[in-house]
Write a structure and sequence with these properties.
By secondary structure, the chain is α/β, with parallel strands linked by helices. Helices cover about 30% and strands about 30% of the residues. The strands form four sheets. Strands 1-4-5-6-7-8 form a six-stranded mixed beta sheet. Strands 9-10-11-12-15-16 form a six-stranded mixed beta sheet, with no helix packed on it. The longest helix has 16 residues. This is MBL fold metallo-hydrolase.
């Protein structure tokens, strides 16, 4: 049983970037992927999983920490190609993922367009278009704060702020936590991800402190990678 990070390198606006989806491997070698990257990232993530010695037929679950295009962009593609996977998300975020309710992020992005300075307008329009293009998919397992999943190995921790239903995954026996966007690795510290995009900055600060107070040795950040304490 272990967690590994999957560094996914890509180029955006002429700059090199990297995100770090996480992969939990159970005692019986079943795989759980946490977050799926942008749209069309499925082949990149597949390559990383295979490079680490696993097969895609071992993939049992995909957990979504929250509804943002860099976290759910390829979720639909995963479900189409691997229909056996169990999609897990918080009860709040599941309503956006399934398309029952327009996502908070899209509402925020559309509202921000009205007041964006001219120099940022092109990016703002592009961002709204990206969010509108996301394909919806049903969530198989809806979770809430304190729920225990993955054969009792993982505890769900509600970490709202970045979005309302954001979740963090705590693995006590591995002394590890997977933070999504509730915490970002910045050198040897943890900070809030994109404060100007946070839907509630006070909640985001409280969630960050909640993560910092966990008794863990390894912190897996989607942005910045693994932090060893």
């Amino acid at each position: 049983m272990k967690i590994i990070e999957l560094p996914i390198e890509f180029e955006f606006n002429g700059q090199k970037n990297c995100i770090y989806p996480s992969l939990f491997i159970s005692n019986n070698d079943e795989l759980t992927l946490v977050d799926t990257g942008y749209a069309n990232f499925l082949p990149l993530i597949e390559n990383e999983i295979i490079k680490n010695g696993y097969e895609m037929k071992q993939l049992k679950n995909v957990i979504v920490t929250h509804y943002d295009d860099d976290h759910i962009g390829s979720l639909y593609d995963f479900k189409v190609k691997y229909p056996q996977i169990n999609i897990i998300a918080s009860e709040i975020e599941s309503t956006y993922i399934s398309g029952e309710i327009k996502s908070e992020r899209l509402v925020q992005a559309e509202d921000m367009l009205e007041n964006l300075p001219k120099k940022d307008l092109e990016f703002g329009i592009w961002f709204v278009q990206q969010l509108r293009k996301l394909k919806h998919v049903a969530v198989d397992e809806k979770v809430n704060d304190g729920d225990i999943i993955l054969d009792s190995k993982c505890k769900i921790i509600a970490t709202p702020g970045h979005t309302s239903g954001h979740i963090t995954l705590y693995f006590p026996s591995l002394k590890s936590v997977i933070t999504g966007d509730a915490a970002v690795k910045n050198y040897d510290d943890l900070i809030i991800a994109n404060p100007h995009f946070c839907l509630d900055i006070k909640q985001a600060e409280q969630s960050l402190n909640k993560i910092k107070n966990l008794k863990v040795k390894y912190i897996y950040c989607y942005h910045g990678g693994k932090l060893t304490l």
